[in-house]
Amino acid sequence: EVQLVESGGNLVQPGGSLRLSCVASGFNFSTYWMTWVRQAPGKGLEWVANIKEDGTEKHYVDSVKGRFTISRDNAEKSLYLHMNSLRADDTALYYCASGYCTNVRCYSSPENWGQGTLVTVSS
Amino acid sequence: SYELAQPPSVSVSPGQTARITCSGDALPTKYAYWYQQKSGQAPVLVIYEDSKRPSGITERFSGSSSGTTATLTITGAQVQDEADYYCYSTDSSDRVFGGGTKLTVL
After folding, report:
1. Which residues contact A102 (CB under 8 A, 6 or more apart)?
2. Over chain B, what is the mean pLDDT?
3. Which residue of B has its CA nearest to A95?
4. Which segments of chain B have a pLDDT < 50?
């Protein structure tokens, strides 16, 4: 059974930093794209960042470029999101999600999701 | 930046067919994905690559795509299908979710 468990969410002041973690189990983590998606309270889903299976390719939504860094440790089956210069509009539930593979190729589009970790940016 | 447009809400009676649309300029060449999110829960993938159903997803869910519009169809909608539904797709540089559609079955 695929499991993704996020942690690291917390209350942080504007301008502060936080590192989110996601530990994976039940699938071959090192062969899948991984993605962070967030959801502000009462709002819709927002794609944040993703990272290729070997870490050589990373993409970010414009609003977090230069502030957030996605990384992974395949040996530890873990995904990370390093968040700096946090702002009130970064307040959200942050989900970790895995891509999927067919017989032909692997895709970054989210398939399995964790339950999320809550980040609150407030003074 | 790329955008996907969904109606904010759709309402049907139990047993009726619900259709939720998603419009985007890149959809003729890019796959659409659909996620169901029930209150207080994480999203669940219900349709991938426009029309494919993941294992474990009921056959009542189907997807199609034509031109710039992708459609999620729920045949014989049930009360337990009440949820928010999000489409997801990409263009050459952006990866985006639609704004979401609240499906009411009553």
Report:
1. none
2. 97
3. B42
4. none
